[in-house]
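lol ok so funny story. i was supposed to be doing the assay writeup but got distracted and ended up predicting the structure for this chain instead. priorities right. anyway since i did it might as well share w the group, maybe its usefull for someone
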Amino acid sequence: MTPATGSPPTHTGVAVRATARIRAEHNGRATTLPLLHSDGPFHLRRLRSSGGRARVSVIGAMSAPLGGDRLALDITARKRAELEVTTAAATIALRGSTTDPAGYDVRLTADENASLIWLPQPLISTRGSTLHQTYTVDLAASSRLLLREEQLLGRTAEPPGHLTTRLTVRRAGRLILDQHTTYGVPALAWDGPAVLGGHRACGQLLVVTPELHPLEEPVHLGEDPANGCAVLAPLADSRALLTTAIAPTPARLRLLLDAALAVGVPAMRCGRRGS
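and the output, tada:
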C-alpha cells in the first residue's frame, strides 16, 4: 500500500513478514476495540465511531507489498460488535528486488449478530509485480457482511503485473462462495472480450445479511459497455448477493458498485470512498 504522509520507513529489500490484527467486541453498551496490533507496513488508526459502529483505518507505513513479502490482516468482530475497516490509500503491488511473488491475505470473521464492513481503497497491480491475494471470510448465521474489493490493472499507459485473487466465504460453516481470478501475463485471455473487454478496473461487492430479500433474477447495471457494466446476482445461499463489475476507470467502477448496493440492499447503503 502507499505509505502514509511524512517520512515513512523505506522497504529494505528484505522480504517482510507481517500480520496486523483487529478485534472488536461489544461490552453491553457499545463496540470497543480491545486489540489493534499494527505490524510491518500496517499502521492501524482508530476513527470516530459512527452510529455505534467502531471504525478503523489501515495506513501504509512503507511501500508494500513487494516481491517476496507475506502480509496479512486478521479482522474479527465478536458477538454483537459492529466494525468498519477502511484503508487510507490505494495498495500498490510493486516488483521489488526478487521475482518471488508477494502474498496478501485478508481474514475476516464475524460472530453471532455481529456486523463487519470492509471497504478498502483499490489494489493497483503494476508492471513486473506478482501478487497472490486471498480473502478468507467466516460468518455466523446471524452476522452481517459488506465487502468491497477493487483492482486497477496497471497505472496509466502501463500493463499490469500478474495478479491472482481468491475469495472464500463460509456462512455457519457452510461454503457459499469460492471464487478465483487471474489477471496479467502469463494468464490466458484475461483481457479478452469474454473477461475484461479492454477495461482495466474490476471489482466486486458482497453483501451477506439475514434480512436480505432474495432477488428473483440477476440485475444488470450499465447501459453502455464502453463505460463499464455490473451484474448483481444472488448466490445459492439466499442471504448473499454478489456484484461483479468492470469499468474503464476506478471512479466509474465505484459508481457501478455503489449503484448495485443501492439497488440490492438499501438498508446497508454506505457512503462513497468508504468514509
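The two ends are 18 Å apart (CA to CA). Residues 18-196 form one domain.
back to the writeup now i swear
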